[in-house]
Design brief:
The chain starts with a strand and ends with a helix. It has four helices and eight strands.
């Protein structure tokens, strides 16, 4: 199994951060590999909602990476499962208030199957790169300021 997590402290309140993360349509604003995304079913950020997403794969080729929100706790947690694509990790965002700031932890895990199991190191590196994009989220949300 491959696992990675990353954590940042964002100078925004937990509800603002949660609301931004809960709407999967915001992913292209801070996740560099997202090429397109749309809500297929459910309400934005609601448990059971499914997003159809295309990301840049090896060599920049488009890869399906659809996901479903599997668990929500407003202001505190969003969990999801990738349901389409060659790798189908599951993960989540975990938020906690620290004064007027919010600590966000992004964790991903993947159980590579078949031939993907042979490249477990590459899968682990990919997960590490993905969760480290929280730095981009931090910059984006802090630039927006508290009222947006």
């Amino acid at each position: 199994m491959a696992f990675a997590e990353y954590e940042v402290l964002i100078q925004r309140d937990a509800i603002s951060v949660y609301s931004f993360l809960a709407d999967g349509l915001n992913l292209p604003l801070w996740c560099k590999d997202v090429r397109s995304i749309e809500l297929l079913s459910g309400a934005p950020g609601a448990k059971g909602s499914v997003y159809q997403q295309t990301i840049a794969g090896p060599g920049g080729r488009p890869v399906a990476c659809d996901f479903q929100i599997t668990q929500v706790r407003p202001g505190a947690e969003i969990q999801f499962q990738v349901i389409a694509g060659p790798a189908q990790p599951r993960g989540g965002y975990y938020l906690s208030s620290e004064g007027k700031s919010t600590r966000v932890r992004f964790a991903l895990e993947s159980q590579p199957k078949g031939l993907m199991g042979l490249v477990n190191g590459a899968v682990h590196q990919s997960l590490k790169s993905e969760v480290a994009q929280l730095e981009r989220l931090k910059v984006l949300l802090e630039k927006q300021g508290p009222e947006e």
